[in-house]
Amino acid sequence: MAKDLEKDCCCEHDHHHEDGCCCGHTDEKKIQELREKLAQERAKGNTNSVSEGKVVTVEFKVYDNDTDELLEDTKEVGPFFYIQGMGAFVPKIEEVLTGKKAGYKDIITLTIEEGYGEHDEELVVEMDRKDFVEFEDIYIGLDFIADLEDGSEQSFVITKIEDDVVTADGNHPFAGRNVRFELELIGVREATEKELEFGEPLFEGF
User: Does a structural domain hold residue 133?
Assistant: First the structure.
């Protein structure tokens, strides 16, 4: 049985690249932890290596490690940005990148368990088109955040639109796959206070 979603719960969300998402805030305790870690790294002179509270920019190609199928190439869609320590990237990759500087390259393989988990059929849901009244347009591939009935949030992607029925999938596109990242670290900088509050990179003035 599919998980139930609260109505009027959707906000458009681009989890990749420069647009970011501003639908949530980081809790104050986590922000303070990251402030302290940034201060510690600054005191050590480690301003340009990956550590918690840094905005990290990476380019990568992702392959299905069993079939060698290319699943994603950031050269086609733009670099991936995230804040280290916010849980926005795969934990194993964040661990590998810790302490590294721009120019670092690596090939990182992830099992299903280390990466994106098994595909969960309960995360494939059908919604009414009227639940998307706040959107200017809906289309296959649209990524949005919805509230589940238990109060948690989940990212979904629209996979089918048929009359007034919209099918959305809350599984990560790589769920159920062993994957391989061919990755290059492009840039590292300290997150701003506003970015820490929002929990992800922002790009005003870029």
Answer: no
Find the CATH number of the domain harbouring 110.
3.10.50.40
Do the beta carbons of residue 143 and residue 103 sit within 8 Å? no
Residue 136 resides in a domain: no
pLDDT in tens, 112-163: 999 999 999 999 999 999 989 888 889 999 999 888 788 888 899 999 999 9
- Buried/exposed 95-131: b ≥16 CB within 10 Å, e otherwise: ebbeebebebeeebebeeeebbeeeeeebbbebeeeb
Number of residues in the chain: 206
Instruction: Tell me the residue range of the domain where 187 lies.
Output: 25-42+53-117+176-198
Give the chain as a 3 state SS string.
CCCCECCCCCEECCCCCCCCCCCCCCCHHHHHHHHHHHHHHHHHCCCCECCCCEEEEEEEEEEECCCCCEEEEHHHHCCEEEECCCCCCCHHHHHHHCCCECCCEEEEEECCCCCCCCCCHHHEEEEEHHHHCCCCCCCCCCEEEEEECCCCEEEEEEEEEECCEEEEECCCCCCCCCEEEEEEEEEEEECCHHHHHHCCCCCCCC
What is the model's pTM? Answer: 0.75
68, part of any domain: yes
Quickly tell me which residue has 């290319």 as its tokens: 70
Instruction: Work out whether the CA dihedral 69, 72, 75, 79 comes out positive or negative.
Output: negative
